[in-house]
C-alpha cells in the first residue's frame, strides 16, 4: 500500500459551465436570445418581464420561471398569453445549467425570439452559476436601498445590464443615487443602468431597444 | 443548500482522478475556496460526509484553503482588502476594481492510497 499526492486543479464549475455553453450555443443557433434575470425577492423581476414583453410585441418571447415553490408567476404569464414554464427547485437557492437544459423540452421554440429565465430571488448564488444565458440582467429596486452594490458585489460585477425598478419610491426610501451609481461603476464599468417603473411602464421602451440591439 | 450539487461534483472529480491512478481510496482532497465564491466550507463538509459513503472518497479528509477577496488600484498598482460600504483604495482613496482573487473554487490536489 502506498500513498501518493496527485495534482488536480480542476474548476468545480467546469461541468456546469460546459452544459451552460451547450445550451447557449443551441438556442443561439435557433435565433433565441437568452436573458438570465437575477434579483432579490420582490425586486420586480416578473413585472419587469411582463413590461418588457409588452414592448417586444413584435418578437416571440418564451419564459422559464424559476421559483423555490409555487407557480403563481407562471399562471400570471400564461393568462397573458405568454409561453411559459415553471421550474420549482424545492429549496435550492439558484438555477443551474443542468436544470435549465432539462427544462428546455417544455418550450416550443417554434420561432426565433427571446427567452427570459427568471432566476430564484436571491442576490448571491444566481450570480455564481451560468445557466446558458447570453446576458445577465440584474433587477434592483430603489426600495432595497442604495447600498446593494456594496453588499452583493458579485451580482453587480457580473451583470450586463441593470434595471433600477420602483423609482417612484426613491424619495420615500431616501435612495442615494450618487452612492448607488458610484458602487455600480466601481464594480462594473460598462453595464447600462435603466431606471424603470413597472406600474406605469416608464423606461421599458429603452430597455427593450437595448435588448434588441444586443440580440442583433 | 447549494453546496449539495457542488459537493457531488467534488466527489466526481476526485473519484475520477483516483480511478485514473488506480487508487484504492482517496485519503485527502484539498479545495481552494475564495471568499467570494459563495461556498461555505462547513456546509461542503457536512454534505461530503453523507454523499461520499460508498465512493472512493469515503473517509477522506477535506482540506480547505481559503482565499480573501482582493481589490486592485491601477493608480497605485496595489492589491487591497476592501472596507465595508466602500471600494476605495486605502492609499489614494479612489475606487479600485474587482479582481479574480477571492473567486477561486477548485479541487487543487488529492492524496490517494494504492495497493
Ligand atoms: Zn490607489
Could you give the count of β-strands of chain A?
8
> Which sequence of strands runs across the widest sheet of chain B?
2-1-6
Low-confidence stretches of chain B: none
| SS-based class of chain B | alpha+beta
Give the termini distance of chain B in whole angstroms: 36 Å
Major β-sheet annotation of chain A: 7 strands, parallel
- Please write the string of helix (H) and strand (E) elements of chain B: HEHEEEEE
Considering DSSP H and I runs of 4 or more, what fraction of the residues of chain B is helical? 25-40%
What does this structure look like?
The complex is a heterodimer of chains A (216) and B (115). Chain A has 216 residues and is α/β, with parallel strands linked by helices. Chain A is built from 8 helices and 8 strands; from the N terminus they run E-H-E-H-E-H-E-H-E-E-H-H-E-H-E-H. In chain A, strands 4-3-5-2-6-7-8 form a 7-stranded parallel sheet, with helices on both faces. In chain A, helix 1 runs parallel beside helix 4 and helix 2 crosses helix 8 (204-215). Chain A starts with a strand and ends with a helix. Chain B is built from 2 helices and 6 strands. In chain B, helix 1 (3-20) packs across helix 2 (41-51). Chain B is an alpha+beta fold. The longest helix of chain B has 18 residues, at 3-20. Chain B is elongated and about 60 Å long. Chain B is 25% helix and 32% strand. The structure holds zinc ion. Residues 73, 75-76, 89, 91-92, 94 of chain B line the site of zinc ion.
Question: What key attributes describe this structure?
Answer:
heterodimer, A: 216 residues, alpha/beta, seven-stranded parallel β-sheet, 8 helices, 35% helix, globular, B: 115 residues, alpha+beta, three-stranded mixed β-sheet, three-stranded antiparallel β-sheet, 2 helices, 25% helix, elongated, binds zinc ion
Please write out the topology.
The complex is a heterodimer of chains A (216) and B (115).
Chain A: E1 2-11, H1 14-29, E2 32-39, H2 45-55, E3 60-67, H3 72-79, E4 83-88, H4 97-103, E5 113-118, E6 135-141, H5 148-151, H6 153-158, E7 161-165, H7 177-187, E8 193-195, H8 204-215
Parallel strand pairs in A: 2-5, 2-6, 3-4, 3-5, 6-7, 7-8
Helix pairs in contact in A: 1-4, 2-8
Chain B: H1 3-20, E1 23-34, H2 41-51, E2 61-67, E3 71-73, E4 78-80, E5 97-98, E6 105-114
Helix pairs in contact in B: 1-2
The structure holds zinc ion.
